């Protein structure tokens, strides 16, 4: 197993960043936040080359949404976020799709214009495809 400190990445290396590095930085994690932020600063200054798969961005959105709900107790005040969490679990939707579905549900919208099969699992939505 090859384990190294994030701060020791040599200059000009290509680095794929996973979700937890973003979460630690964004939430200012007491142990890891600073080193993660410094790694992103190295990318910004072009000292290292950062790469992020789209799926990581999707997972990041989901995790930050959950963290915000927990931190600010939005689940008790926001129907859309509460519904998004429930819909995500019930219909196996990623956070963005769950939020879209919860927005529709909270606002009484039963039609969705989309060319995506993920919403076909949501029985209360009528799907309209191009």
Could you give a quick summary of the protein structure above?
With about 130 residues, the protein is mainly alpha-helical. Helix content is about 50%, strand content about 10%. The longest helix is centred in the middle third of the chain and has 19 residues.
List the helices and strands and how they pair.
Layout lengths: L13 E3 L2 H8 L6 H12 L4 E3 L2 H19 L6 H13 L3 H12 L4 E3 L12 E3 L2
Parallel strand pairs: 1-2, 3-4
Helix pairs in contact: 1-2, 1-3, 4-5
What does this structure look like?
It is a single chain. With 130 residues, the chain is mainly α. The chain folds into two domains: 12-51, no CATH class; 74-128, no CATH class. 49% of the residues lie in helices and 9% in strands. The protein has a two-stranded parallel ribbon. It has a two-stranded parallel sheet with strand order 3-4. α1 (19-26) crosses α2 (33-44), α1 packs parallel to α3 and α4 packs across α5 (95-106). The longest helix has 19 residues, at 54-72. The termini are far apart.
């Amino acid at each position: 197993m090859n384990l190294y400190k994030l701060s020791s990445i040599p200059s000009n290396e290509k680095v794929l960043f996973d979700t937890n590095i973003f979460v630690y930085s964004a939430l200012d994690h007491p142990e890891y936040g600073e080193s993660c932020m410094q790694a992103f600063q190295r990318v910004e200054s072009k000292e290292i080359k950062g790469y992020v798969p789209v799926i990581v961005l999707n997972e990041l959105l989901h995790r930050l949404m959950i963290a915000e709900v927990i931190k600010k107790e939005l689940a008790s005040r926001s129907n859309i976020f509460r519904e998004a969490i429930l819909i995500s679990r019930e219909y196996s939707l990623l956070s963005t799709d769950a939020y879209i579905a919860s927005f529709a549900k909270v606002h009484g919208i039963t039609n969705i214009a989309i060319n995506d099969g993920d919403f076909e699992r949501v029985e209360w939505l009528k799907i309209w495809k191009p």
